Amino acid sequence: MEKRKIKAALLGLGTVGTGVYKLIHRREDVMERTIGAELEISKILVHDLKKTREGVDASLLTNCWQEILEDEEIQIVIEVMGGIEPARSMILDALHAGKHVVTANKDLVAEYGRELLDAAEEGKCDFLFEAAVAGGIPIIRPLKQCLAGNDISEVIGIVNGTTNYILTKMFEENMSFEEALAKATELGYAEADPTADVEGLDAGRKVAIMASIAFHSRVVFQDVYTEGITKITSADIAYAKEFDSVIKLLGVAHNTESGIEVGVYPMLINKEHPLASVRDSFNAVFVHGDAVDDAMFYGRGAGELPTASAVLGDVIDVARDIEYQCTGRISCTCYKELPIKAFDDVKNKFFLRMQVKNQPGVLACIAKVFGDHKVSIARVVQKRVRDHEAELVIVTEKVKEYHLKDALHELQEMDSILEISSVIREY
Amino acid sequence: MEKRKIKAALLGLGTVGTGVYKLIHRREDVMERTIGAELEISKILVHDLKKTREGVDASLLTNCWQEILEDEEIQIVIEVMGGIEPARSMILDALHAGKHVVTANKDLVAEYGRELLDAAEEGKCDFLFEAAVAGGIPIIRPLKQCLAGNDISEVIGIVNGTTNYILTKMFEENMSFEEALAKATELGYAEADPTADVEGLDAGRKVAIMASIAFHSRVVFQDVYTEGITKITSADIAYAKEFDSVIKLLGVAHNTESGIEVGVYPMLINKEHPLASVRDSFNAVFVHGDAVDDAMFYGRGAGELPTASAVLGDVIDVARDIEYQCTGRISCTCYKELPIKAFDDVKNKFFLRMQVKNQPGVLACIAKVFGDHKVSIARVVQKRVRDHEAELVIVTEKVKEYHLKDALHELQEMDSILEISSVIREY
Which residues does the UniProt record annotate as the domain ACT (chains A, B) (predicted)? Predict the structure, then answer.
């Protein structure tokens, strides 16, 4: 008697696709005991049929989406192509045809998640995307299931490995941003065009997805304020050390009574915070819930096999749902419609570094401007740089973004302020 | 029309039970949107009906288990009494009656897990126990689902908050073990009889459960070698600092080709390892899988609400399974029968501190004894303590436990060795 089989199609055979293909083969011997059936990749959608692909059964390759869509034996579609189109259309096609979908596509989920989850719900299909956030780290399922009894107020993540690697090198080996970026590129952590990483766009997509799930209310990428790490200097890093802190690019989401705050920006964070010890290209997501208190999830945020681990975890879950006829069991959990707070109204502490004329009364003038704009000062450090010029570091209490912006605008007009060198938020 | 209700009974109303009761009430308004039905605690089993319990509806209390067992409307039993009996019998009764069970009982799961899971499988019931390991930290579900595509070779956990608090105080505030224990008792972290915590028994139960799930093979508490932290001294902590390490009580499980290694003991661990920065009473579990690489789960390992968070996460999962008629969907995942390695055959690195006579040739003699017993030395630090006495610290390479034991036995007989002060493993 032939064994029962669950057939899946793979869309895309890049880094993640190859990882998924390899991993499913590696687990062949245990899959039946894990899900009660064999799991088989029966078709792989690729762009170029002629490219040689080592270790891949060439007879599975096709460049025709219809062939997969119309194959009724294929119950699961694994989308690992990335990008919005044609991924979006194909996933919608698949869900409408009653196929379950697993995806690693953060761009797509961060922008069209609602549409895709709605289509899944309509067809009672599973639509899972653990791999879209923080690679191999389990975070979507813990939020949707393990922490489902919590009112989650805060999600903060180091969710971009490239920038965390760069900041670690700057911090531990005193590299400049440019040197650390070059090193990251050399090691393959950074892409030829590193904009999406270093400007916080990649992290912004992930934090949109996490905020949606944690707060049960839809947050899309366009809602996320983003600021990158290109302006961070060795001088900032040195002050961070002096303040017993590190600088990390954080995706920050808070659920407050006046709306959801969501952004990505570099922050000084005290070295005793669990996120501070997340080094190199590792990722981590820190969550605060009213019952669980603080929790953190740490691991590899990218890479062929770590991402494949998350994809296969989802595929196994779909297969179990198919076996137990309970697909669609956990679909969209965004049952609230919370407002997104304008970023100007968000409150943050700030670390400000500026070059000022070294003359009496300057600090008093600066303090007055801050006072006028409701900015309270928590700490001031002044260091003489040259005879007539001093470096001033001011750490504020929590202030609204627009109050600080206004104050800085006024300071920039002052003769005694030579340069505002750094404006970095503090956790 | 009355809303659909899922009824549950709570067995026990101690710290965790009270937390679960409170938390379910706190989530009343969102439960229907979360699980598609209302969730109601309809009976609570307590020992003493007369005790006043603030905030608890007294009409729900009963001291009669049969009353709950025979109530056909009760679909879920939440066992938070702790201990082996009567918890074990009641859970078996409940499962045989087709009721689903959620428990926080590590003692029971570590010893009778197989029996309980078998009973659950037989009745197609859910039997979930996320709260039994590391309190609020999601670890069971991530291992069973998110990381299901991995071959997991290593699980290492700081899974006892009391001892982690004590070691943190010893490390950061130079307290002695006794001082730190007194502080932990004062804060309610340590119980009147702290044996189960400080001797590693509590951690041993948790590591047995985690090893079973991670390696798909049954490990019970009796398989776990345990050693506590009572012998750790300020001198050991000082050396750990000198070696850029901390000392942590770790539950350690490895899946090797020659069997499962499982134990609990204090270890020196490099301060760059993610577990090293887990402070105070926090817990964390570090996992290595062939696909996911390194991952870590961090949070509160105990306490009323963190534990209730894990319990309610499980209850919500059961309720969703009831709604989708797929209870029993993920039951026992121990489909292998791997041998447990005798602890004497496990290999470890060791940190050894000893007081020796300060005379020529002593080190040569010690080195010879180690060599005779196949113990390779990685590092030696000698410090003169007094004129005729020196403190010697030796760090070994990985050696089999029994080889080290034999070597130490021989060293103890030597005239020039005054005392073997510490024997601590190193990660």
Answer: 351-425
- Rounded CA separation A216/B417 (Å): 65
Query: What number is the ipTM of this complex?
Result: 0.95
Nearest-Cα residue of chain A relative to residue B296: A298
In which band, very low, low, confident or very high, does the pLDDT at A354 lie, cut at 50, 70 and 90?
A: very high
Give Dmax over CA atoms of chain B in angstroms: 92
Residues of chain B with Cβ-Cβ distance to A289 below 8 Å are: 309
B161 contacts in A (CB within 8 Å)? Answer: none
Q: Which of A62, A126, A49 is nearest to A94 (CA)?
A: A126
Rounded CA separation A308/A24 (Å): 9
pLDDT digits (tens, 9 = 90+) for A82-111: 999 999 999 999 999 999 999 999 999 999
At A106, the amino acid letter reads K
Identify any residues that bridge with B265 across adjacent strands, giving them in sequence order.
B250
**Cα atoms in the Cβ-side hemisphere of radius 13 Å centred on B374:** 10
Q: What is the enclosing helix (H) or strand (E) of B421?
A: strand B417-426
Q: What are the Cα distances from residue B111, in Å, to A90, A111, A378, B196, B212?
A: 49, 48, 54, 15, 11
State how far the alpha carbon of A62 is from the alpha carbons of A15, A17, A49, B20, B82, in Å: 18, 14, 7, 53, 57
CB contact under 8 A, A136 and B325: no
Give the Cα separation of A289 and B23 in Å (integer): 12
Distance from C-alpha of A91 to C-alpha of B170, rounded to nearest angstrom? 55
Provide the token pair at A281.
């290209």
CA angle B146, B151, B156 (to 5 degrees): 80
Chain A hits for B329, CB-CB cut-off 8 Å, are 320-321, 324, 326
Q: Is B263 helix (H, G, I), strand (E, B) or coil?
A: strand
pLDDT of A240-298, one tens digit each? 999 999 999 999 999 999 999 999 999 999 999 999 999 999 999 999 999 999 999 99
Per-residue pLDDT at B385: 79
- Cα A29 to chain center, whole Å? 34
Closest partner residue to B27 (CB to CB) among A149, A324, A328 is A149
Q: How many residues are recorded in chain B?
A: 427
A106 classed as catalytic: no
Residues in chain A with CB shorter than 8 Å from the CB of B308 are: 149, 291
Of chain A, the end-to-end C-alpha distance in Å amounts to 61
* Domains contained in chain A, CATH given: 5-135+304-323 (3.40.50.720), 145-300 (3.30.360.10), 346-426 (3.30.70.260)
Strands (E), B46-201: 61-62, 74-79, 100-103, 127-128, 152-158
How far from the centroid of its chain's Cα atoms is residue B89's Cα? 24
Query: Among partner residues B142, B149, B324, which is closest to A23 by beta-carbon distance?
Result: B149
- Name which of B85, B116, B117 is nearest B11 in CA terms: B85
Provide the 3-class DSSP secondary structure of residue B130.
helix
Burial class (CB in 10 A: 0-12, 13-18, 19+), A52: exposed
Q: How far apart are CA B137 and CA A289, in angstroms?
A: 12
3-class SS of residue B108: helix
| Min distance B30 CA to chain A CA atoms (Å) | 9
Residues of B belonging to the active site: 206
State how far residue A347 is from chain B, nearest Cα, in angstroms.
26
Residue B394 contacts residue B414 (beta carbons within 8 Å): no
DSSP at B341:
P
